Amino acid sequence: MSPSPHSQGETPVTRPRVVATDLDGTLVRSDGTVSERTHAVVRRLGDAGVHVVLVTARPPRWLPSLADLAGEHGTAVILNGAAVYEFATGTLEQVHGFERAAAAALVDDLRAAIPGVAFVLERVDGPVYDPGFVSTHPVPDEARSVDVATTLRASGDPRDDGPGAVVGKILARHDDLGHDELYARVTDVVGDRAILAYSGAHALAELSAPGVTKAAGLARWCAAHGLAAADVWAFGDMPNDVPMLAWAGHGVAVANAHPAVLAAADARTASNDDDGVATYLEQLLM
């Protein structure tokens, strides 16, 4: 997306019908909070008839804490575009995950090429952790810890059959590899069999099924509601946000964004810690 006349931070004249925003590093501050100023802007947008859609790499279990922000009828496109989460019901819709055989082949090939790599499968029914996966986030008490490859084949466990076993995202980590080396080696192995997205998590490779991006997930949701790319303003900070900013009618990067995001955006706003999204959107509500 080439720079527009709004690249110095001016807002376009046409009001959006949808505001689509990333969470961590964009709408959410570095300390994990969402300011009251941001809450107020989101509420006012809803009152003005503008849909606010949260578009995030987060899995479903990290969404309930944002129910107050999202509102009664809130929606999130989650897992880097693999599904839509409805806050009112806690259910997933429009799920687009890996085919089981394809996910199993990826796990096998990555283990053969990168000995010591460990995985998490982010499934519709919750995460499955390799016993050797060291998580930097709290692991849910109900999470399964088992060789993930067994769950992708005939494991004998009824939980591994049916719609709940659909894998929306595969996470790969290696305790002894730095970020750049891990990404390079994973990229060599997966080729075009998966999309490797970078959402800001250090030394954690996030794999989505082919064709699954934040842009694709948001586009599906918009199409289902009679909305077009031109109706959307999108906000982001990391490379996994670039397709969404490029697809939307107007893309905005926060000041703390990755250089690739700053280059792709139509406009810039203040950082996440300075309520950049709220600052930009307040101009709509004056």
The oligomeric state of the chains shown is single chain
Number of strands: 14
The CATH class of the largest domain turns out to be Alpha Beta
Q: Whole-Å distance between the termini? A: 28 Å
Name the helix and strand elements from N-terminus to C-terminus, one letter apiece: EHEHEEEHEEEHEHEEHEHEHEH
Main β sheet profile: 8 strands, mixed
Count up the domains: 2
C-alpha geometry: globular
Sheet-strand content, in percent, reads 15-25%
Strand order of the largest sheet: 5-4-3-2-1-12-13-14
Question: Uncertain regions: pLDDT < 50 for 5+ in a row?
Answer: 1-8
Keywords: Hydrolase
InterPro entries: HAD-like_sf, HAD_sf
GO molecular function: hydrolase activity
Protein name: HAD hydrolase family protein
Task: Please describe what this structure looks like.
The protein has 286 residues and is α/β, with parallel strands linked by helices. It folds into two domains: 18-95 and 213-284, 3-Layer(aba) Sandwich (Rossmann fold), CATH 3.40.50.1000; 100-208, Hypothetical Protein, Haloacid Dehalogenase-like Hydrolase, Chain: A, domain 2 (2-Layer Sandwich). The protein contains nine helices and 14 strands. The protein has helices at 36-47, 67-70, 100-113, 148-151, 179-190, 214-224, 242-247, 259-264, 276-281, and strands at residues 18-21, 51-55, 75-78, 83-86, 91-93, 118-123, 126-129, 144-145, 167-173, 195-197, 205-208, 232-236, 250-254, 267-269. Helix 3 (100-113) crosses helix 5. Mean pLDDT is 91; it is low at 1-8.
